[in-house]
Amino acid sequence: MKKQTDELVDAIVKGIQDKKGRRIVVADLTHIPDTICQKFVICSGGSPVQVQAVAHSVGDVTREMLGIKPLAVDGLRYGRWVAMDYAQVIVHIFLPEERDFYDVEHLWADADLREIPDEE
């Protein structure tokens, strides 16, 4: 299961990077009891159109690489905060101001956070 989750996270990160998503953070929740998933992948897009493009790219890459589609996608219409539910991994794609306001990374203070450097 861990290998599958790690492969899913890698595919999600690739989808984000393909559309120049920024400030990628992977929050590992596996050691925290009673969480809704094993990992969060959090990133930012510079505009609603980019947030939507990142979400579409994540969906495309996970389907192409692993044959996996999200169970649910919410927020795509407005592109301010898109959440994609892959059961063991939940992806959050934010506009910067929404991300700063909700501060999802720090809601899970006990999670291990891994920052992925932005690609140039």
Chain-wise SSE layout:
Blueprint: H1 2-18, E1 22-28, E2 39-44, H2 48-66, E3 72-74, E4 81-85, E5 89-94, H3 96-102, H4 104-107, E6 112-116
Please explain how this structure is put together.
The chain has one domain (2-110): Beta Polymerase, domain 2 (2-Layer Sandwich). A hairpin with a 3-residue loop joins strand 4 and strand 5. The mean pLDDT is 95. It is α+β, with helices and mostly antiparallel strands and 120 residues long. It has four helices and six strands. The chain has a six-stranded mixed beta sheet with strand order 3-4-5-2-1-6. Helix 1 packs across helix 2 (48-66). The protein has helices at residues 2-18, 48-66, 96-102, 104-107; strands at residues 22-28, 39-44, 72-74, 81-85, 89-94, 112-116.
Low-confidence stretches: none
Query: How far is the N terminus from the C terminus?
Result: 32 Å
CATH topology, which one? Beta Polymerase, domain 2
Radius of gyration: 13 Å
How many domains in all? 1
Counted by DSSP, the helix tally is 4
Q: Can you count the beta strands?
A: 6
CATH class: Alpha Beta
Shape: globular
Kindly state the mean pLDDT as a whole number?
Answer: 95
CATH superfamily: Beta Polymerase, domain 2
**Major sheet size, sense and barrel closure:** 6 strands, mixed
Strand content: 25-35%
Task: Going across the biggest sheet, name each strand in turn.
Answer: 3-4-5-2-1-6
Structural class: alpha+beta
Per CATH, the architecture is 2-Layer Sandwich
Share of residues in helices? 25-40%
Order of helices and strands: HEEHEEEHHE
